[in-house]
Amino acid sequence: xxxxxxxxxxxxxxxxxxxxxxxxxxxPMMPFASNFAEAVNLVNGPNPPPxxxxxxxxxYSCMGFTPKMSPQEAAEAIKPLLAKPGxxxxxxxxxTADPMSSWVDEFFDACDCKDFFSAYNIHQYQSTAKxxxxxxxxxxxx
Length: 142
Known about the structure:
Elements: E1 3-4, E2 28-29, H1 36-43, E3 51-53, H2 71-77, H3 79-83, E4 90-92, H4 103-111, H5 129-141
Helix pairs in contact: 2-4
């Protein structure tokens, strides 16, 4: 299942306010490697989304319920999307739980696909705005 940022889901009933996969204020994401076939179909279908987020926190397993993925495994998993990316969708690079980890750099080295992505996203779990701003600035300088 391709999920939506803001906890939206394309599996909701069609009359749901959250059911339109191409709404400008929602970005579909592929949380796991098993979602790439659906992602390829979505971006090459009749209503491709303007943006798509790729892996969500592949460096972290939430209480063991979500699978972790190495940068090399992710590089292998994304190959079908790199081969058939559609013509109307921009891609957000994988977002890690730790924005300062080397995971994304290792992923780019393994897939040789850094130029494929149009944007970055970072997750922050800081307790103060000052700490958050500091992490964002450090990430940007990376």
